[in-house]
Amino acid sequence: MRVAIAGAGAVGRSIAGELLENGHEVLLVDKAPTAISVERVPLAEWLLADACEITSLDEAALQRCNVVIAATGDDKVNLVVSLLAKTEYGVPRVVARVNNPKNEWLFNESWGVDVAVSTPRLMSALVEEAVSVGDLVRLMRFSQGDANLVELTLPPESALAGTRVGDVDWPDDTSLVTIIRGNRVLTPSREDALEAGDELLFVAAPAREEQLEDLLSATREA
């Protein structure tokens, strides 16, 4: 898979390193000469260019990329890169970094963004996830398809503890994708029984989140 990353700062280089370790082809693009640190990610391609300009993106051969990641520290730049990648080059998957949570509402399919990653929001969500039991925590928003990745730790008093996944009347537009039980990551099947303390990860439509939280947090009748 070929991936272009706009922004060769600490975030962009870190992403590039992970992708290279997983066997992908990575191009880092940045307009600041000081950001071009080939020795830090020697296996990546590097391009000194402004990712907001069509001529630069032509040089980067963006049409050959499977994924573009807009990872600069400037939300305006990330939006422009996302829009150009999607509309001018038809890149199948565009991921954009959101630096200011107040701008998160802009990072949607209208700007070519498939997945928006808000670092401040993600960090606060992870803090909530670490201390919350029985409360639904939104981890990530998927712009395409209008869905969120959400997590809930099943409380001991939940009426669903001991219930098989296939016997639960899940809300529409929700999908249980993973059960984290202790140090195990489980792909849920219909026969798996839910246990108190399970971390449940769902992809769910925003309109179904409250219904899902009510279902999972409902207590047993006395």
From TrEMBL:
UniProt keyword list: Ion transport, NAD, Potassium, Potassium transport, Transport
RCK C-terminal domain residues: 137-218
Example of a GO cellular component annotation carried by this entry: plasma membrane
InterPro entries per UniProt: K_uptake_TrkA, NAD(P)-bd_dom_sf, RCK_C, RCK_C_sf, RCK_N, Trk_Ktr_HKT_K-transport
UniProt GO molecular function: potassium ion transmembrane transporter activity
Protein origin, superkingdom: Bacteria
Pfam hit, one: TrkA_N
Occurrences of domain RCK N-terminal (ranges): 1-117
UniProt-recorded name of the protein: Trk system potassium uptake protein TrkA
